[in-house]
Amino acid sequence: MAIYTCGHTTPDSDSICSAISLAYLLNKIGREAIPARQGNVSPETQFILDKFGFEAPELKTEFAGCELFITDYSDRGQAPKDLDAATVVGIVDHHKLGDITTSTPLECWIRPVGCTNTVVKEMYDYHGVEIPSNIAGIMMCAILSDTVIFKSPTCTELDIKTVRELASIAGVEDFGALGMEMFKVKSAVEGVPAKELILRDYKPFDMHGKKVGIGQLEVIDLAIFDSVKADLQAELEKMREDENLHTACVLLTDIMKEGSEVLVSSQDASIFEKAFNCKLVDGKVWIDGCLSRKKQIIPFLEPAFA
């Protein structure tokens, strides 16, 4: 039986690229594997796949009876709904440890680095498997995306070292310029429906029994949201009500100014305000220096629900 390698719902570039890079590795060490995805490919991810000659992985949302190697998450809220009917054989991730449990032993590679593909690179090194140039290219791009071209506080020296090694394998001389190309693609939001924008990089969480949804949009100029901000706020309200969320928010991250404007819809906005010692004005607040949902939002917001 083939193992499916698959990332979280509403997959980002790391989720898609780690599914591909991990599947290749597993196949090389004699474990048949197929990369998959749970949702649509974002414009940035499509740019990366096109750049290095890949088709998007198979779209698959049901895994009952399958073996699954999870990439880029360990929270049940980001897993397929039939996870309990699948056999989880492994997890490779760079987030906080989530609430997925298994009935059998599994392989875990979880490291506090900026990107899952940095961990996958360590797996290649461990198994002594050579990385093809096109695989190296998508791994490199995923790390550049997740670390915001090394600006994110999640970025480590290992991420930087790994990008340099992968760039050499991929034959990319100026990975910084390629990273900026990716973020220009990310910044193209004109004409995209508000809900699609929020869900482009969106993750659900259970925070002490309260359902919370957090999206993030990283762009090179926050001004591009001026004409759609009201639509985003209205869609957040609708999503919160439709999905019975306590809080829904989206980070509008300006990678050049290195900060985020956060739009918030909540049953009790004082929880968000307490978490960040701030005051929301019309459901919005600017948080200077905030680039990472994983390191600068969740660790503060989750305890506030306790």
From TrEMBL:
GO terms for cellular component: cytoplasm. Keywords: Hydrolase, Manganese, Metal-binding. It holds the Pfam family DHHA2. Residues 179-305 form the DHHA2 domain. This is inorganic diphosphatase. It catalyses: diphosphate + H2O = 2 phosphate + H(+). It comes from Halarcobacter ebronensis. InterPro entries: DDH_dom, DHH_sf, DHHA2, DHHA2_dom_sf. GO terms for molecular function: inorganic diphosphate phosphatase activity; metal ion binding. Its EC number is 3.6.1.1. Its cofactor is Mn(2+). The keyword Manganese applies.
